[in-house]
Amino acid sequence: MRKDNENMSRRGFLKTAAGIGAALAVEPVLGKVQAATEAMKRDPYKVPTRHEGMRYRTLGSGNSRMTVSALGFGCMGMTYNRSEHPDKAQMTRLLHQAVDRGVTLFDTAIIYGPLHNEEFVGEALAPYKNKVYITTKFGHEVIDGKATGRQTSRPDVVRRYCEDSLRRLRIDSIPMFYQHRFDRDTPIEDVAGCIADLIREGKVQRWGLCEVSADIIRRAHAVCPLTAIQSELHLMHRLVEQNGVLDVCRELGIGFVPYSPINRGFLGGCINEFTQFDTSNDNRHTLPRFQPEALRQNTRIVNALQHFGRTRGMTSAQVALAWLLHKAPFIVPIPGTTKVAHFEENLHTLDFTLSDTEWAELESVLSAIPVIGDRYGADQQKQVM
Ligand SMILES: NC(=O)c1ccc[n+]([C@@H]2O[C@H](COP(=O)([O-])OP(=O)(O)OC[C@H]3O[C@@H](n4cnc5c(N)ncnc54)[C@H](OP(=O)(O)O)[C@@H]3O)[C@@H](O)[C@H]2O)c1
C-alpha cells in the first residue's frame, strides 16, 4: 500500500517538476523536488497493513500519510513514570507479543527516562527493524542524561537529538518525530523548516506536534505537512474537542493520536484513593486529578463506564478506548501497559462497535458527573497551549 502511495507520489512530483520546469525553468524548485523524491526512495519501512484480528487506520494525508494499527502501544510506562514495572526481559516479551498481534505503532520519547525508554524500546524492537514504526519526541532539554525542565526546539538541537534518537532506537530513519512541547523561543516555522530538511536527508519520515493550538498547527503544516497531533484526549479531558484542534486535524487531513487514553490507568478501574504511587518513578502523585479526594469523587465516572459496559460485555478501559475510536477514523489511541492481560483487554476493544445512540446515552450519563481536579499542576500546565 505504501509502495503504491510512493509511486503515485513520485509520479506527482515528476509531473509537478515538469510543469514548473516548463513554465518557469526555475532550477532551485527542481532541486527541491528532486531532493524530496530522493528522500522518498530512501524510505526503508515495509510495515504490514494486514493481520488477522487487527484493524488499520491512516494518520495524515498525501505524501506524509502513514497506515498503522488502529491501536498503538505507548511504551513510556514500561520503564518510566508509571511506578514499578516488570524486568526488561518480560517487557521485551510483551512488546514482541504486541507485534505478533499486529500492533505496528510504538510510542516513546527522549524525555522518558530520560533516554532509557528509547534505549529499551530500540533494543526490544530491534528484531523488527523497519517492520514496525517507533515514534519518538524531541523538545524537552536533556543535558548529560538529565532533564533541565526547559524546552528547546532550536534547529541545531533538534538535529542533534535526531541523531541521538536514531542511535538509541537502532533505526536509520525516524518514522514520525513529534515536537513534545512548544518552544516559545523558536518560531514553529523554524522547527518545521528543520524537520523538512531532516526529511529531505532521509533521517526523519514524518512529523507531528503535541499539545499545541489550532493556529500553531496551521502555521506548522503550511511549511512542512504534519502527519499527526498527539495531545491528551479521553473521557475526563476533552479540550481538543473545544479548542479547534480536532476540527483543524479533520480539515487539513492530519491524524490525531490521543495520549493517556485511559487517563493514566484511572479509567481502567484499578486506581482509587488508597492507591500508592512509587514517588520516585511516577508523576501521578503530582497531578491534581490523582489526589485522594479527587480520585474518590471521580470514581463516579469509572462506575458509570463499568455500568455502561456491563450489558455490552465491555470493561471500563474498553469503553474508554472504544469511545475514542468511534469519535473519528483518523484517531489512533496509544494505551500503555506492563501486563499481557491488560494488553489483550485493550486490543479486544476492536471487537466492539456501538451505535451513535449508545454513545449518546453514555455522554448523557457522564455530562451529569463533574470531573474533579485539573489534569496538570501549574508547572506542567505552563508547557501546554
Ligand atoms: N505526548 C505527550 O505529552 C504524552 C504524555 C503522556 C503519555 N504519552 C504517551 O501515551 C502513552 C500512554 O499514556 P499513559 O501511560 O500516560 O496512560 P494510559 O495509557 O491512559 O494508562 C496507562 C496505565 O493504565 C494501566 N492500564 C492499561 N490498560 C489497562 C486496563 N485494561 N485496565 C486497567 N488499567 C490499565 C497501565 O497499568 P498496567 O501496567 O498495570 O496495565 C498504566 O499504568 C505513553 O506510553 C506515552 O507514549 C504522551
Description of the structure:
- With 385 residues, this protein is an alpha/beta fold.
- It has two domains: 41 residues, no CATH class; 340 residues, NADP-dependent oxidoreductase domain (TIM Barrel, Alpha-Beta Barrel).
- It contains 14 helices and eleven strands.
- The protein has a seven-stranded parallel β-sheet. A two-stranded antiparallel ribbon has the order 1-2. The chain has a two-stranded antiparallel ribbon with strand order 6-7.
- Helix 1 packs antiparallel against helix 2.
- It starts with a helix and ends with a helix.
- The relative contact order is 0.12.
- Bound molecules: NADP nicotinamide-adenine-dinucleotide phosphate.
- The site of NADP nicotinamide-adenine-dinucleotide phosphate has 28 residues, from helix 12.
Briefly summarize what is shown.
It is built from 14 helices and 11 strands.
